[in-house]
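queue> pop job 88
queue> type: inverse folding (structure -> sequence)
queue> payload:
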């Protein structure tokens, strides 16, 4: 007896037209991430809605600057997860040498992001760019930074994390 009707290939053919965030739904909860470091980051930071540790300094500073509560909690958890002690928000590249994590909010111009990324790479600090796809200019600047970045980059479309540590060059777009 012949099976008639549409096969699975034809049924899934229409998925090509879905928006990119729906196509990446299969990577939800860290499935498909083949880096133990990034998998732990997804499971222990991105998927949590509560604080990991007792610290709230970064969270409070981000809330004062108008960052969404969920993003502020996640970035506070990134600091706890990576065991960073110091941070700076919207600082000029000269002050990056004094911290572990640098955060560029939407107040930072897209033209300044490349200089911040270079300085963060030089001193080994993690750079976090909030709203990397806010507008065309910022999106193009972030794409160029990721292309030349020598270590791991994680883009969850809410923010872009550029790690400058022992990790190999990998790009994750969750």
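queue> result:
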């Amino acid at each position: 007896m012949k099976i008639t009707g549409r096969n699975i290939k034809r049924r899934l053919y229409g998925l090509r037209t879905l928006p990119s965030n729906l196509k990446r739904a299969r990577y939800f909860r860290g499935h498909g991430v083949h880096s133990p470091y990034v998998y732990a980051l997804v499971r222990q930071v991105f998927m949590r809605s509560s604080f990991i540790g007792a610290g709230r300094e970064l969270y409070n500073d981000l809330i004062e600057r108008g960052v969404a509560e969920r993003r502020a909690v996640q970035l506070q958890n990134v600091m706890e997860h990576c065991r960073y002690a110091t941070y700076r928000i919207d600082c000029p590249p000269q002050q990056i040498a004094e911290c572990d994590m640098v955060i560029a909010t939407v107040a930072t111009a897209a033209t300044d992001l490349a200089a911040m990324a270079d300085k963060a790479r030089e001193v080994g600090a993690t750079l976090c760019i909030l709203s990397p796809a806010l507008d065309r200019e910022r999106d193009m600047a972030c794409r160029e930074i990721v292309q030349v970045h020598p270590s791991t980059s994680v883009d969850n479309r809410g923010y872009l994390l550029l790690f400058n540590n022992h990790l190999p060059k990998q790009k994750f777009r969750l």
